[in-house]
Design brief:
By secondary structure, the protein is of the alpha+beta class. It has two helices and ten strands, in the order E-E-E-H-E-E-E-E-E-H-E-E. It has a domain of 104 residues: 2-Layer Sandwich (Tetrahydropterin Synthase, Chain A), CATH 3.30.479. The two termini are 16 Å apart.
Amino acid sequence: MSYKIIVDGIQHKFSSAHFIVGHDKCGRLHGHNFHVAVEFGGPLDPRYNFVVDFIDVKNAIKAEVDKLDHRILIPTASKDLVLKESKDNLDFTFSGKRYSVPRDDVCLLPLPAVTSELLAKHFHDVLSQRFKGFKIKVRIGETSSTFAEYGE
Ligand SMILES: [Zn+2]
């Protein structure tokens, strides 16, 4: 028998801008109020009789959310994106368009694209490094009715 804890997405939101290279509509810079929900599955900790401490999980989610919140999310592993970093600015080009934005307004993510699916995997990977031995599932909400999940 295994147990599961769930931290829903009400508390963990980030408002960020993104784009999907090559997509007709989503290739334009736009934003979402993303939210993050996670599930941790596993046996009960014999000392406390819980799967994992909710506070530790919430703090870990918040730490990652804070890096993304109110920033433009840039997928550094995109093969169709050219990045040029200068002292205070970041220039990026794709699909014949060039953007130049303050470096502080950007969060660079080592992803081939910034989609909800890959954001879910990103959070999953971050949490899996911090918390070992759990079955972790991450759900990213892009709107109140559209979600992407990654994990077991
Ligand atoms: Zn979008």
